Every structure is written in structure tokens, then in C-alpha cells.
Amino acid sequence: MDDYLFRRAMAKFTTGITVVTTENGVETHGMTANAFMSISLEPKLIAVSIDHRTTMFQKLKDANKFAVNFLDQSQEDISKIFSKQLPGKENFAFADLDGLPVIPDAMVQLICSTYNKVEAGDHTIFIGEVTNLNIKDPEKIDPLVYFEGNYRKLN
Predict the structure, then answer these.
(1) Which residues, 6 or more positions from 4, have their beta carbon under 8 angstroms from its beta carbon?
(2) FRET partner for 49 with CA separation of 20 to 30 A, picked from 30, 33, 119, 142?
(3) Structural contact between residues 118 and 127, judged by C-beta atoms closer than 8 angstroms
């Protein structure tokens, strides 16, 4: 099967939108990602899949900690900034949680210690152990979702 057909099939799976963030003590970096999943309750593990061709790949490879931020519908532009569809990435004003950059007012902010890294084709799956989190009131927000290459609303 060709790459286009595979990508079309994967686009049929609706996902939430996250921004993965990290820093190396000097530089802060963020990247929009929809390849995210919860793995385990004990220990509390999550996973994000990162393409080897991205700048974020090397940043996470070298980092011991990272954050995952779940975006809500009002944060579509933030998703676009961190997927290089809109300018502003270099001047973005991050918030801080446990010494890591996080997206202000994200639905959820997860602080993770790198637990494991698993190479899988042209991506690496970064498994993080959640060490802290912050949740915005879920009854007042709707998640930002992605389906068939476009942002969508649940209602």
C-alpha cells in the first residue's frame, strides 16, 4: 500500500490535540502532537510518538523531563503555532509547572519524567511517568479534536 492511502486511513481516527514541551535549561521548545495515549495507572505512564525528523525528537531524547498539555477548543491557534502553521513560537509566553514550561490555561498539564524510549520505525515513542498534573475545570471546556486533517468541534 502507498503512504497516501495509509495516511488517509489514519486520518479517520479522531484524536485530541496536545502540545509537548520541554527545556534544556536555556531553551524552551514545544511541538503539537496528536499521537498521545495513556498507558498505565501503576505506575502512571503516558506515551507520545515523535518523528525523528523533528527538532523535538532530539530535545526529548536529551531531556529527562517533559510536559504534555491537552488543548481546548479556544486554543486552536496555539496548536497551529506549535505545528508551524502560524508564527509566534519563538515569543510564546509559557507558564511554569514544577520547573517545566506548560501552555497557560491548557485543559490538562502533565509533568513527566522520561521512563523509557522505544524506537518504532521513523518515530520514537517517549514513555513518561506522570509526576504532577493540573486540570482545568472540565465542565466549562470542550477539547480541541482533529479528524481528517482538520480541527473539529464535538457539538
Answers:
(1) none
(2) 142
(3) yes
